[in-house]
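User: Sequence recovery, please. Input:
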């Protein structure tokens, strides 16, 4: 760990950066959001390239990679959610004008990331052996097992990247993570072409290409962090990260758990249903991830506003973020409705598979505005520190909608993957309505005030 042995300054005498954007939150939102959007789309391209290369091998390989990828994400989702607390703590410290607290929070994130990365590698060994029991054919089961075993080798590097990325976002630096994700994408595409196209390593080649991409993106941010160093975190810093991050980590884990049940149900039904779900999911990433970018930027600005005791700005940030996301959602709806067929056709030559995927893309077009509303509300509430309520709503909505409707509509009514995607629509609508109700009530302000008081006390003690 990179550690600087200087003492913590209690505050920065200069004006906090919030003064630079308070009169123009939309411009600052877009300044932060577009590099995050490039980063998230670049990451989606990594998975999309894997899907395109593996899709040409056959439905069994594609279904296996889909299941193995979901299993890997399930193992990583708790630490990924926990590490998002780093962004909240850093942004609020920046808003409060504290100088070295952001580096302590970043160091705490690095420590947590490496610990969970090592644990993830160990857990994946046992989980990989269970996956064949969840697949429709032995071939797709073997592909899922191979993909998970190899993909999780990169878990420590990936979580290190997440920790440093969240710290950079909290500082208002979204360009360094963008550069890291682009580097990862270049490495992944090149190795996919080499390992799958030339050496014919199949699913294993796709997994090793992704591992190399994660190492590359972590390396870029490690070099960036070396320029500033890390201040050794205290126990209070680690406790604060756990306090802020654990609710979101639990939310991510349980949300992915409900989504994993959807995936397992589809995987047990039919290879084509699972493969179509994988295709539609990769396309939906391109509509969803830019919304996440705006949400992440809104979270940073909300955190800075709370740290600076300027809660009125949080409402302006939320409104600007919602307008931006609705405009983008309208564009995505037009594209998916108008070009869903050709998009699905690009992934496979299997006619029945293409037909299922086209239907799923139409459903994806219908939930764009629901997605935009709930993701903005999540981001703003998390940035303000109201993480527990946001987590409870997300977990309840996902578990009450996705698994039951996947079974009722997908299995019992015979709709297959379409039933699961209808469940996703219901989940987004319920969660969005409850989160915006919370925001309008102003109840989050009391939570934000308590969290700010604890952060200020920790800064003084350090």
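Assistant: Recovered sequence (462 residues):
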């Amino acid at each position: 760990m990179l550690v600087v042995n200087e003492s913590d300054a209690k505050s920065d005498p200069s004006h906090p950066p919030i003064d630079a954007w308070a009169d123009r939150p939309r411009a600052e939102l877009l300044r932060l959001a577009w590099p995050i959007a490039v980063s998230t789309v670049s990451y989606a391209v990594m998975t999309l390239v894997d899907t395109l290369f593996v899709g040409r091998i056959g439905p069994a390989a594609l279904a296996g990679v889909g299941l193995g990828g979901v299993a890997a994400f399930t193992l990583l989702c708790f630490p990924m959610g926990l590490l998002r607390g780093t962004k909240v703590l850093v942004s609020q410290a920046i808003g409060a004008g504290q100088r070295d607290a952001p580096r302590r929070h970043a160091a705490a994130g690095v420590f947590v990331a490496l610990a969970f990365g090592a644990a993830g590698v160990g857990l994946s060994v046992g989980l990989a052996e269970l996956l064949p029991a969840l697949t429709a054919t032995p071939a797709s089961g073997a592909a899922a097992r191979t993909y998970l075993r190899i993909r999780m080798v990169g878990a420590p590097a990936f979580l290190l990247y997440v920790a440093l990325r969240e710290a950079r976002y909290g500082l208002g630096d979204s360009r360094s993570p963008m550069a890291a994700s682009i580097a990862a994408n270049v490495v992944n595409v090149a190795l996919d072409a080499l390992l799958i196209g030339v050496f014919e390593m199949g699913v294993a080649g796709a997994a090793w290409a992704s591992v190399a991409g994660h190492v590359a993106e972590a390396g870029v941010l490690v070099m960036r962090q070396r320029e500033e160093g890390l201040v050794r975190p205290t126990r209070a810093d680690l406790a604060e990260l756990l306090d802020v991050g654990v609710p979101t980590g639990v939310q991510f884990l349980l949300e992915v758990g409900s989504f994993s049940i959807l995936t397992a149900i589809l995987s047990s039904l039919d290879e084509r249903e699972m493969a179509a779900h994988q295709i539609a999911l990769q396309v939906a990433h391109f509509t969803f991830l830019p919304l996440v970018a705006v949400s992440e930027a809104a979270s940073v600005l909300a955190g800075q506003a709370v740290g600076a005791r300027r809660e009125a700005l949080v409402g302006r940030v939320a409104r600007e973020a919602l307008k931006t996301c609705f405009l983008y959602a309208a564009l995505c709806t037009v594209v998916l409705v108008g070009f869903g067929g050709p998009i699905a056709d690009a992934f496979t030559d299997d006619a029945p598979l293409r037909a299922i995927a086209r239907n799923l893309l139409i459903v994806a077009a219908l939930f764009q505005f629901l997605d935009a509303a709930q993701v903005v509300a999540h981001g703003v509430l998390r940035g303000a520190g109201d993480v527990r309520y946001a987590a409870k709503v997300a977990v309840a909505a996902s578990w009450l909608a996705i698994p039951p409707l996947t079974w009722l509509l997908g299995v019992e009514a015979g709709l297959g993957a379409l039933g699961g995607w209808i469940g996703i629509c219901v989940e987004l609508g319920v969660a969005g309505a409850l989160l915006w109700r919370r925001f309008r009530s102003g109840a989050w302000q009391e939570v934000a005030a308590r969290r700010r008081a604890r952060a200020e006390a920790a800064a003084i003690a350090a």
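Residues 25-461 form one domain.
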